[in-house]
Structures are given as C-alpha cells and as structure tokens.
Amino acid sequence: MLERWRFVLALTWLVAAWLGDAQAGEVMDSVKARGAFWLTR
Questions:
Q1: pLDDT at position 30
Q2: Tens digit of pLDDT for each residue in 25-38?
Q3: What are the backbone dihedrals phi and psi of residue 25, each rounded to the nearest 5 degrees, phi first?
Q4: Domain range holding 17?
Q5: 11-27, pLDDT tens digit by residue?
Q6: Average pLDDT value over all residues in the chain
Q7: Burial state string for 20-41 with b = 16 or more CB within 10 A and e = fewer than 16
Q8: Percentage of the chain surpassing pLDDT 90?
Q9: Is-contact 6 39, C-beta < 8 A?
C-alpha cells in the first residue's frame, strides 16, 4: 500500500516537473515540495 502511494506521488511529481511552473504557478510548486517531502521520508 505504502509503495503504491510512493509511486503515485513520484509520478505526480515527475508530471508536475515536466509541465513546468509556467502553467500552474504556486500550486505546482506546492505539489512538488510535497512530493519531494514524501519521497525523502
């Protein structure tokens, strides 16, 4: 279960990074920061 969530978060983070900050702005920064936090736990 935990591994699946980690995979989903990693995928979300990668997609967010791929889209770039220009399209989503601060929301995307928040998502990236949250994803990085979970991945490094």
A1: 78
A2: 677 677 788 888 87
A3: 70, -135
A4: 2-39
A5: 988 888 877 655 656 77
A6: 78
A7: eeeeeeeebeebbeebeeeeee
A8: 5
A9: yes
Per the structure, the count of domains in the chain is 1
Q: What is this structure's pTM? A: 0.41
Q: State how far Cα 20 lies from the chain centre.
A: 12
Asked whether 16 and 32 are in contact (CB, 8 A), the reply is yes
Residue with tokens 């997609």: 15
CA distances in angstroms from 30 to 14, 15, 27, 36, listed in the order given: 13, 14, 5, 10
DSSP sequence for 1-41: -HHHHHHHHHHHHHHHHHH-HHHHTHHHHHHHHHHHHHHT-
